[in-house]
Amino acid sequence: MAFNRGVRIARLSILDLAPVTEGSTPADALHNTLDLARHAERLGYTRFWLAEHHNMTGIGSAATAVVIGYVAGGTKTIRVGAGGIMLPNHSPLVIAEQFGTLESLYPGRIDLGLGRAPGTDQRTLLALRRTPMSADSFPQDVLELQALLGPVREGQWLRAVPGSGLQVPIWILGSSLFGAQLAAELGLPYSFASHFSPGALMPALETYRTLFTPSAQLDRPYAMAGVNAFAAATDEEARRHFTSVQQSITNRLRGAPGRLPPPIDDIERYWTPPEKVEVSARLACSFVGSPATVREGLTEFIERTRVDEVMIVSAIYDHAARLRSYEIVANEFLGSD
Known about the structure:
The protein is an alpha/beta fold. Helix content is 42%, strand content 17%. The chain has a single domain, classed as Luciferase-like domain (TIM Barrel, Alpha-Beta Barrel), CATH 3.20.20.30. It starts with a strand and ends with a helix.
């Protein structure tokens, strides 16, 4: 836990989707992801997570376990993990083997965040050979995965090799009360996706803390929340960088998702008033501006939510500007120079 100017500050981490920008390739995105992870390690961020999404031309982290191995192999100390693996898309045994392998290669540095959503649309879900009903077994699948990563029990015939006994830390991810309740019941750390779905943030945190039951993994509630941070030298520059993600979400609402677009000077000319309302609601947990502006907003968020950790998302088109944004946040909250 770090402190800055007498204000309680949570640990800071990064969620990266390996954004594929207009005019670039997925290979470019993955190389930038590793560069960002090394940058984050030097700055003192706690963990670097990647997320599973499928059939999205603007996201390069679909093969999440593979990318985690790439990032972990190119860094030394920062924790690397999934934020998350969409468990209904997979057999728990396969995930136990994948993350058991990662833990064997990079011991003490791997996290496994689990989500219930498919991370894609319904047609792509069928291409994954899953059905919408797959999510119904999520709680049971989490328990099965825990058992596969836990100590081998007498008479146990099914083992994850590697995986058994490695006890990779499991997190529950969510944007509703369901995940909060499950994380509390199982005594697992909980991460709320307020960076894109902030509506139920406060009720979910309250539910998680109220219902939490200690477990072998965790003796007290541990909550993390995702936020968007776009920091630059001036408020104006930061707001311009922010237009890339504003355009991106607007395009999704229009049924035309794609690669992350370059920033524009006037977002008001891009979206309609109803689109502005919807996109702004989804991005309500966003801190955009100069170092002082971001510090003020993020400090208020931490004090209001009392989260133990904040996961920063910065979908900035220009890679150098993205590195600088994370550096500014670290300077304000982690004491980096």
